[in-house]
Amino acid sequence: MTSPAAAQREIASEQSYVDTVYERLDASADVARALVKEGFERGHVGHEGGLVERDAMVFQATRRLTALNAAHDGLVFGRLDLGTGEPRYIGRIGVRDAEREILLIDWRAPAASVFYQATAADPAGVVRRRVLRCSGSTVIGIEDDLLDAESAPADMVVVGEGALLASMSRARDARMHSVVATIQKEQDDAIRAPSRGATIIGGGPGTGKTVVALHRAAYLLYTDRRRFESGGVLVVGPSGVFMAYIERVLPSLGETSVTLRSLGEVVDGVKAARHDEPVAAAAKGSQRMVRVLRRLATEGSPETPTSFRYFYKDDVLRLDEKRLAGLRRHLLQQSTYNRVVPRAPAVLADALWQQVRGERAREEGREGFLDVLVDDHRFVDFVEAWWPERDAVDLWRSLPARIAEIAHGAFRREELDALRASWDGQPPSIEDVPLIDELRYLLGEVPPRVDEDVDVPKQLMSFERREREDVRSTRSIEDDGYAHVLIDEAQDLSPMQWRMVGRRGRHASWTIVGDAAQSSWPVPAEAEQARVDALEGKPEHRFRLSTNYRNSAEIYDLAADVARRAIPGADLADGVRRTGEQPAHLEVPAAGIATAVREEAEKLLGRVEGSVAVVAPLALRPLLERELATTLASHDRLRLLDALETKGLEFDAVIAAEPDVLIGESEAGWRTFYVVLTRATQLLTTVGSTSRWRTEEPA
Ligand SMILES: Nc1ncnc2c1ncn2[C@@H]1O[C@H](COP(=O)(O)OP(=O)(O)OP(=O)(O)O)[C@@H](O)[C@H]1O
What we know:
Blueprint lengths: L3 H40 L4 H23 L5 E7 L5 E4 L3 E2 L5 E5 L6 H5 L8 E10 L2 E9 L16 H6 L16 H7 L6 E6 L5 H15 L1 H7 L1 E5 L2 H7 L2 H4 L5 E5 L15 H8 L2 H11 L9 E5 L2 E5 L1 H14 L9 H10 L5 H16 L2 H10 L5 H6 L1 H9 L5 H10 L10 H11 L14 H4 L22 E4 L7 H10 L4 E5 L10 H12 L4 E6 L1 E2 L4 H14 L7 E2 L8 E4 L5 H15 L4 E5 L4 H14 L3 E5 L8 E7 L1 H6 L4 H9 L2 E9 L11
Parallel strand pairs: 2-4, 7-13, 7-14, 8-9, 8-12, 12-13, 15-16, 17-21, 18-19, 18-20, 20-21
Antiparallel strand pairs: 1-2, 1-5, 3-4, 5-6, 10-11
Helix pairs in contact: 1-2, 5-6, 6-7, 10-18, 11-17, 11-19, 17-18, 19-21, 21-22, 23-27, 24-25
The protein binds adenosine-5'-triphosphate (ATP).
């Protein structure tokens, strides 16, 4: 064991190196600031070229400045002592000295990969791997791994008990942190996997899937910045709470150009944060919705006129229901509904002209007929009523009134009732967003101009429609593609959600992370097929993470016992960190649950430094909200959450209220409970009026 004095000497020596790196970082920041200033001055030169130059210069310099600022905290975190030569220092970004010699290697550079890949079994030339723990720019601790004792010089000092254990034991706050200093080999393999096709990362709870996926996004940007920055990287997670939890990780790795969206915000212009109750949610997520929405987007609505009569000279021209239906089919064969909006007048005019027989009319010819028609408000009104531009959100709003008629047996009575109730005057739920997106694509966009359309007679090219007042931002569907799509908690995506994200990743490479055992989707096979369809045959590369870094081994043992009994085929992780704290179970009469939960929350707040969560079944939430109101108001470390809201999150301590009630609340109850049990890093208490979950073997 190293003496404290020797450790202090090592810290002081590392501090002097770290200081040198910060001096260079500050110098680079000064240069970037000077460039921003100079850029603005160029803007005053007065000619257009000056402005373009200014914009480019200011943009580049500002970006550099943002990256430098973001990388400031804990800039230097690693040192490698190889058998030969100078040590290599690893950091969040690369830094060179005034002579362009490397001071700090970017963690994503090939020269840094050995920092993560070396193990005692295969040291790959690394004698000692050192992690520097910093607070701001001050080195506060050192953790060493001696990987090749035989090659170590006699005077080599080895400090600490290993960086990983130290990092895992830290208190948890409201934000996820980067793990760049302690990425493990199997995680590094997934982070640095080539960007082709789809990289699928599986593994049990707490194995680092989320954190690995985020580091992978930063890695991809580093390796092919041009492609991924211009094409865009989209990161999709389950909820707004989750997105807030992970939003600091990428900036702290120097990346600010990634789009983070929760599932309720994937579609531009629509924001949803509320889940539907399970029956409606399952119906909305099901693939069965596709045909129903197709009917909605292509069939006329109750307001669509079913006949048209027009007097022209000596003729009465008629379009009856059957003929109009034929014309509708004809138009929809050409393209999507909105795309053929400009063609509708021509198709109708043609069908009318074919019926013109009168002598006088024939003499004036088709041109004359069209001249009259386009100026006649009766025709204009009819076209507008028969084939109006349609907006996806408006069409979605018509669902409650139309669902029964267009479902054609796709949904059971109970499902139809649940669907209608869910839409009762409500704004879109998270489960509605993919339906709106589906409608957007089914409808397509109204083309901006039709001048070049050879099929449309010249009179009809200028056919004026009235301006719509309520045009929505959801109309545009041309801007949805990304270069890389990253899906977190992928096991929970419904088939309709897979279709929605699939449209954004047609030409993208993908990273998909998830754990089937934590899925709350009731029909996994259907979702799996939708995932395969979304990837459109892109090659899949699979990685599995095996070690649980979140829970104490005692907590994970309990969760794994539940999984073995209730979740066939669960991918169980290895727990590594024993704390000596067994999870507690309190059995109390139903009437005393709320008080017991509150008392336990107050007790655990006193025992841990970081975050505490009370997880409630839906049925108990209002009661617990009342009971905990005062405690919640005076402790911002404490949160009250539904089971589904805890997905992907973690807390120092968790109290799970009424497990048996929670398990009974949905078809995926056991899997959801497994998620809840695996959220705590240090302390876990279950409080229930029954304890069936502790021994029950579900059928
Ligand atoms: N190499 C590592 N070094 C230090 N901490 C790590 C490492 N890998 C993961 N962790 C920590 O373990 C915890 C769990 O990680 P993460 O949330 O990414 O796991 P997950 O597999 O996505 O979990 P879940 O499936 O349960 O949501 C986080 O606090 C993360 O920072």
